[in-house]
Amino acid sequence: MRAKPFEHRPGQTMALMAEPDVELLAETLVAFANSDGGTILIGVDENGQATGMVYADEVEGVLRAAVQECRPPVEVRWHQAAAEDGLAFAIVVPRSPELHSLADGRVLVRAGAENRPLSGDQIRQLAATKSTGDFEAEVAPGATRQDFDDEVIAEFIEKWELRQRREWTRSVDELLLEVGALDEDGRPTIAGVLLFARNPQAFLPQSALTFVKFVGSQPRGEMGQPGYGRREEIGGPLARIIQRTWEVVGEEMRTGAVVTGLVREERTEYPVAAVREALVNAVAHRDYRLGGRRIEVRMFSDRMEIISPGGLPGFITLDNIVEEHFSRNPRIVNGLYQWGYIEELGLGIDLMIEEMVRAGHPPPKFKDTPYSFTVTLYNVRERPPVPAWTRTMNERQARALAYIQQHGRITSREYQNLCPDVSAETLRLDMVDLVERGVLLKVGDKKGTYYILK
Q1: What strand order describes the sheet that includes 38-42?
Q2: 163-198 as b/e, with b when 16 or more CB fall inside 10 Å?
């Protein structure tokens, strides 16, 4: 009997290989080590099915040869992965603080489901990032295991089990060690404090978030005084910061209605998914080494700015931000992924752009400086010449509905001016039809009559 299919597919932190291959394995080891780390399933085809054709001694030999092709060697651990026949194996590659290359000099990173070579400039950028060390993996000064919140940990384990589709059967601290929240000696790491401490800001004051809602489009009012109407300082572990900030943003976002055919659809000021991605990205990828600066979410009348301390990480630039992926804080990213705040690793920017454009907004604007990264979402929708909900109307009715959408109402005289070559009776019947179909509402009587969207 063949093993059941694995619930995995190739991606940012997962690779599948039906058969062991020294060259491909070496490339993937280097790519994972230089990126966010990952797992390589050997003996599993592209459909997630164990092939039943791979054995432990073969995997060990190929792995040894592949590691020798890496400069410096990549540290890995491997174990049996198939639950039934024992014919598939998992090679776990942690993210490395060193820059790795292949014997032929190529430096690769993981980009989605591919191993991608870097250019000379990108290699120099990545090397500079590696040299700063892995701050989130450092021990948090003064923190102890007792500073962790058991309720937050229990919630995380529940989410982890849902994501992994299996129960965690070992101790809580073993899971905390596995996700990088504790070191080998049981001491809390920076990532652990940020994810699970009752009060992370006692150790990292800069980890809080500041929300400000401004009345107009500028930070200052007409007389030079502060122009904000609401300001909140939001703290706690990262999952709580995301949750509370999202609640506050939701309270401040305007909502409206769009009519598609005869269906009224509520629509928020900004696409929900785009705001969520911008917020989660800011929390997950900020540089937590930078003291004195917090993430800022600024809402203006015409835009929202999400400002994250720390420039773009690794080899990421504004030119390749859509295609490439590199996490400054892979343990934090993984924690938020297990929590469900990140749906799929490496796709946040793509989703943000797609959601904004789909909603009729301009694409997000990105600004990168050495000490901050800003995402700006504009709430100005580009008005189509003929709204989507007029497709079932005749041309005259579509013109009238577009006029109402722009001006809020239309009178019989205004409709006549839009269609000067059409009889008054025909235009009256057009309005009667739209009223009977529930699209328009007739207001007033005789010469004072006008029509609005129902």
Answers
A1: 14-17, 38-42, 89-93, 77-80
A2: eeeeeeeeeeeebbbebbbbbeeeebbbbbbbbbbe
453 contact partners, CB below 8 Å, separation of at least 6:
259, 401, 404, 405, 439, 440, 441
Give me the domain span that covers residue 294: 206-378
Asked, for residue 83, whether it belongs to a domain, the answer is: yes
Q: How far is C-alpha 68 from the geometric centre of its chain's CA atoms?
A: 36
Q: What is the CATH number of the domain that holds 445?
A: 1.10.10.10
Of the chain, the percentage scoring pLDDT greater than 90 comes to 50
CATH code of the domain containing 252: 3.30.565.60
Separation of alpha carbons 237 and 218, rounded Å: 31
Q: Which pLDDT tens digit goes with each residue over 260-274?
A: 555 555 678 899 999
Examine residue 175 and state whether it is found in any structural domain, yes or no.
no
pLDDT of residue 39 exceeding 80, the answer is yes
Q: What is the pTM of this model?
A: 0.70
Angstrom distances, CA of residue 416 to CA of 114, 222, 432: 61, 43, 15
